[in-house]
Amino acid sequence: MTDTSDYTPPRVWQWETESGGRFAEINRPVAGPTHDKELPVGKHPLQLYSLATPNGVKVTVLLEELLALGKKETEYDAWLINILEGDQFGSGFVEINPNSKIPALLDRSTNPPTRVFESGAIMVYLAEKFGAFLPTESSARAECMSWLFWQMSSAAFLGGGFGHFYAYAPEKWEYPINRYTMEVKRQLDVLDRNLASRQFICGDEYNIADIAIHAWYGALVMGKLYEAGEFLDVASYKNVVRWTQEVQQRPAVRRGQRVNRVWGDEEKQLPERHDASDLD
Ligand SMILES: N[C@@H](CCC(=O)N[C@@H](CS)C(=O)NCC(=O)O)C(=O)O
Question: Please, is 72 exposed, middle or buried when counting C-beta atoms within 10 Å of its C-beta (0-12, 13-18, 19+)?
């Protein structure tokens, strides 16, 4: 790595493979598959290809919530995509997500099968298809979509910005850490002010906006992301803490968090899920 103070960007950027940092090996400046690999297919109509990162957990929590409502058609197979081993660049995965990122869903109940990528799009697809956790009345729906899109656009600053420079970059640089810490604390304050007068993100009812935001900011407030709880003084966002604890108590949330999980406590790991009993 060049010392940042000496660095002058070249006229045309070249790919320097030794850029360093925790995810340097999977980062590439080009898209498309790197190898041929078919995806496995299980017995259920819904096939999920994912990993229990915050983006992956949004979908497994929603599926477990739908099942908890008694919607048996939402039974699903969840296959592990190990992004550190490059599974997201296999040809079968790229066919259902040209962006090579988890989560990706294939709904085989339609003819031809429907592919869905981007966690927000997957959540809307499932909530609409199974008629739950997304209000149908226009104003309530607009509020839910607003917060869902807020999360989708904010998470890159939290993960790709703050998380990257605070936890994963090869060195601790003050400038980017300050810049992204400022933004993440502002985002936490946005949530805290909203939750001062509301039980859930959009009001009295829990919906996909809660699921999406809890997967990232709930995890952050519980100290489960980047070991940054103390640094960000998360305890001071009292309304976010109260809401996080309430959402975390939901059995479907705790079930969904375990699916495609291959780190942490062994009893909380479940690399693949093919039946409700896998989580019992
Ligand atoms: N906006 C996307 C982001 C998905 C995403 O960033 N997934 C990460 C894991 S959380 C991933 O698959 N990274 C692999 C890579 O970048 O190669 C979504 O919400 O689905």
Answer: exposed
